[in-house]
Amino acid sequence: MSNLPIGFRAAGVAAGIKKAAGALDVALIASNTSCKAAAVFTSNKVKAACVLRGKNQIAANATDFRAVLINAGCANAVTGDLGVRNAEDSAAAVAAALGLETAAQVMTMSTGVIGVQLPMDKLRHGILLAAQAVTESGFEDASRAIMTTDTVPKTSTGVFTSGGKAYMITGMAKGSGMIHPNMATMLSLIMTDADVSATRLRLALRRAADRSFNSISVDGDTSTNDTLLVLANGASEARPSEADFELALTQICSDLARQVARDGEGATKLITIRVTGAHTEAMARKVGRSIAVSPLVKTAFYGEDANWGRILCAAGYSGENVDQTKSSLWFGGIHVLDRGTPTDYSEEAATLALKPREVAIQLDLGLGTAESTVWTCDMSHEYITINGKYRS
Amino acid sequence: MSNLPIGFRAAGVAAGIKKAAGALDVALIASNTSCKAAAVFTSNKVKAACVLRGKNQIAANATDFRAVLINAGCANAVTGDLGVRNAEDSAAAVAAALGLETAAQVMTMSTGVIGVQLPMDKLRHGILLAAQAVTESGFEDASRAIMTTDTVPKTSTGVFTSGGKAYMITGMAKGSGMIHPNMATMLSLIMTDADVSATRLRLALRRAADRSFNSISVDGDTSTNDTLLVLANGASEARPSEADFELALTQICSDLARQVARDGEGATKLITIRVTGAHTEAMARKVGRSIAVSPLVKTAFYGEDANWGRILCAAGYSGENVDQTKSSLWFGGIHVLDRGTPTDYSEEAATLALKPREVAIQLDLGLGTAESTVWTCDMSHEYITINGKYRS
């Protein structure tokens, strides 16, 4: 299990918001001192109340964050004016319970069903419980409390050094369905004790997000609640260089993002899609994401059917100027297409290449030298079962 | 069963291209006289050999078409130079078998697995059989020969009058998976004995396609082979006005498009999504298509779970400037959202509204007066089963 960086405490408690009795559903993270913060939010025009609040908050104040409240079981999205008041009231309740100066030092995030109001009595009770429970060893409970259809908690931690001083980055993420981040993933919180300015934190997060959470897809649905927040409290006194910190942050974000893709609703396989030979990295990522979203590609992987034409088809409708006469494809290690012409590959070998739980494909566009890697999962009967009855 | 307009003949024969023994897989349509033609093709950058050929052909000659060859079981897409030669050779074989002047009078279409070469010996044999079999009563066989995962043939016919003269429009379409037309649907051929110029045919087809085939989605996958072709031989001597003909053509196209959505792979429900209160019809259509593609929306309909938040979520990431505080939603006839705030609706009534095999939803964006209607189907376990093993 991952550890918390210096100066952070966490708790996960059961407040009765999830239907299952006793399930952890409220996470609280507190920092002993002020944190610099940076965040990226969903690009969905329909934004949850907590996202609307969080965007304003981080724009007004990115240098004095003290706590993050996350509830699962209710997304507080499409909930009108009452939803906005409830988000504000939750932050105020956290500030009061932790003895902070103001609700502006508290970020809130929610995940769960859309169009339902937060059960405020239960949430207030959960906040009181969590504020009493926060501890340096409470991270595992917190990471479990933010799960919805996730089957496992997702955490990642790393220790890095800079100028002889060590610093830690630890993150957690949740997400299994409605995963097609366009600015961030469903919910992720990253904490570090490195000493990084708010501006450098923002720049590093944006680049790290593009190469991690913005490079995964489960079902093509960009959620109303996507939030990726990073907090830096400087407690380690390590001041990493811009490049080093960006690399470290990208490593933690990528690890979390792959965990989210691997735990996609009903998934049986993690699929790594490497697109090479593109004009730009952005072009490669757009082609990769188009392949990662295609239900026909994802069901073929589930069925272990080497139906690689669907991959070319999805690349073709990505909106990028793909040239089929220059495209080559390696499908689970087997070279099946050479500059637009099918090779004389063995069908048996191609089918065998699809058996493992992790499968990699490479599409070379034959146009340039840029590349990008995107992660997704297969689409199974279980995905339908989970989503046909999600609310019950 | 639909009838053919005056002067058209059709046949559907078994050439052994499909795996199932004796299955009809080659359709041939012939006109006794020259036809004006118009077509719209897939916007996918990866285009089948027959689409590449068809685009050139219609650009060079839209006034002298005599026949259309359609095979199922092999898409002739991503097949390199050999695929292009095979498309040309098939057209030449049809011209020879029917005694036409040139292969340029013959359009070909293919549907089936991508990345596999046409079995030319079988296809040539099928062409000879079909050329002998074409008859005024062969339309039903033709409409069955173009099916792949379709469970029923899709045909539509209408008799219209203009200046005291009657004319007929008859069409067939195929498509069940890889359906997310961006210029046209998978494959559709429309025939009329009206007397319409090639220019007017082209304009009418473009507008009719937007309101029919471009307004349906099964799985968000835009195929490599989408082709919608209309042929007019003028045999009825009726010369409908521009507006009348467009309306008539739209009626036939919409009927076929709805049949395609209803027969989506594994579908149990036809879902009609009406988006109103938009600034423009194009905006309404884009929002509607975003909802129609969402796996989370489609699985909720399958599970008869009134999880309407997913509809707002999908509208929000459509790319259009949706304002949640102005959006209202009727979900299977139940008013669940009023300008951004959930109403006090009965959960029981909302669930009941989802039981029928045809369900309608209306999303009012509260911004303007334009609207559009989009059709889709639900996503079921059967969709996964069909697509996990499509090639076997």
Notes on the structure:
Two copies of one chain form a homodimer. The first copy, chain A, folds into two domains: 255 residues, 4-Layer Sandwich (L-amino peptidase D-ALA esterase/amidase), CATH 3.60.70; 119 residues, Ubiquitin-like (UB roll), CATH 3.10.20. With 392 residues, chain A is an alpha+beta fold. The longest helix of chain A is centred in the middle third of the chain and has 21 residues. The mean pLDDT of chain A is 89. In chain A, 33% of the residues lie in helices and 28% in strands. The interface between A and B is large, with 72 and 72 residues.
- For this structure, the quaternary state is homodimer
Taking the sheet with the most strands of chain A, its summary is: 8 strands, mixed
Instruction: Give the distance, in angstroms, between the N- and C-terminal Cα atoms of chain A.
Output: 31 Å
Domain count of chain A, please report it.
2
Total of helices of chain A: 11
Would you identify the CATH architecture of the largest domain in chain A? 4-Layer Sandwich
Strand runs of chain A, count: 15
**In terms of per-residue confidence, which ranges of chain A show pLDDT below 50 for 5 or more consecutive residues?**
none
CATH class categorisation of the largest domain in chain A? Alpha Beta
CATH superfamily of the largest domain in chain A: L-amino peptidase D-ALA esterase/amidase
Q: How much of the sequence of chain A is in beta strands?
A: 25-35%
**In one word, what is the shape of chain A?**
globular
Task: Chart the SSEs and their pairings.
The structure is a homodimer of 392-residue chains.
Chain A: E1 8-13, E2 26-41, H1 49-60, E3 65-74, H2 80-98, E4 106-113, H3 120-133, H4 139-145, E5 154-162, E6 165-174, E7 187-192, H5 198-210, E8 216-217, E9 227-232, H6 242-262, E10 270-278, H7 281-293, H8 295-302, H9 309-316, E11 328-331, E12 334-338, E13 341-342, H10 347-352, E14 358-364, E15 370-377, H11 381-388
Parallel strand pairs in A: 3-4, 7-9, 8-15, 10-14
Antiparallel strand pairs in A: 1-2, 2-3, 2-9, 5-6, 6-7, 10-15, 11-12, 11-14, 12-13
